[in-house]
Amino acid sequence: MSGDSSFKSERKTRASIDALLEIMRALRTPVTGCPWDLEQTFETIAPYTIEEAYEVADAIERDNMDDLRQELGDLLLQVVYHAQIASESGRFDFSDVVESICEKMVRRHPHVFGTKEQRDAGAPPGFWDRIKAEEKAEQEAGEKDQSTASQSTPSLLDDVPLPLPGLTRAVKLQKRAAQVGFDWPNLEPVIAKIKEELVEFESALRMAQADPYCDIRNAHIEEELGDLLFVLANAGRHLNIDPETALRGTNAKFARRFKMIEARLAEDGRSPAQSDLAEMDRLWDEIKVEEKKSEAAAAETEDE
């Protein structure tokens, strides 16, 4: 990029991916680049990548297209960032990333890009999972090293990413296990399991009351809470409800109602710290009833 003035003139025209790639290269150029950007690695950038993906989801949930446009740009920057870091060590570059995803999309959509026979056949049930299974088998065959025969047997769960949010990873693990029949046939036994795990969680709490400073017992509570969350995620899977999305909705509802509590207390010149649980709980119930009435009125209006 030839100087700040030329860059500004280029910005007057429609930006392209090439402009973004050039900006990232300039930021990562030793001596003249940005000191902060030069210090970053795959590991330090990864949390931002996850955060930006969530912010995209949040903008969609709020149906805010201006925010979505900006958040998609932020997410695209993350892809460009990782590709630039990789290119500096000669591993791959942005073009390789694009080529890889283009090949994958064409390969996984034979009913769109394949032969006439494949297009005529359409997308039969299970074809997507079959194609992904074939890809995985080819990848494992290419990576297999005869000298490491002593390694443990590959698992169906091996490629479920560890960094995924806990509830999301739980669902993915459950889906993988379900592929080979390790799954309850319907929701009823899942609900029974939720009740069982809740009893075990309560039992762990009672045990800890005798010695609340015992690390082993506190670890037991954590384990039982994890078991309960895992089976709740399974209930969501059986209902085709994404538990992460459900929890985000509840988080938003909690934040909305608590802000309304703050607003009502502020009308009296007070803050939550100057109130008590009984009063805030009463305000919460009032707000909840008002929201239900508003939702019912809106539903009636739509039916008219």
Concise structural overview:
The protein has helices at residues 3-11, 17-27, 35-39, 42-61, 65-88, 94-107, 110-113, 116-121, 127-143, 166-178, 187-209, 215-238, 243-267, 277-303. With 304 residues, it is mainly alpha-helical.
Structure commentary:
- The chain is 73% helix and 0% strand.
- The termini are far apart.
- The chain has three domains: 3-92, MazG-like (Helix Hairpins); 166-241, Orthogonal Bundle (Helix Hairpins); 245-303.
- It is built from 14 helices and no strands.
- It has 304 residues and is an all-alpha fold.
- The mean pLDDT is 87.
- The longest helix has 27 residues, at 277-303.
Strand content: under 5%
Helix content: over 70%
The arrangement of helices and strands along the chain is: HHHHHHHHHHHHHH
Number of strands: 0
Topology at a glance:
Layout: H1 3-11, H2 17-27, H3 35-39, H4 42-61, H5 65-88, H6 94-107, H7 110-113, H8 116-121, H9 127-143, H10 166-178, H11 187-209, H12 215-238, H13 243-267, H14 277-303
Name a few traits of the molecule:
304 residues, mainly alpha, Helix Hairpins, 14 helices, 73% helix, globular
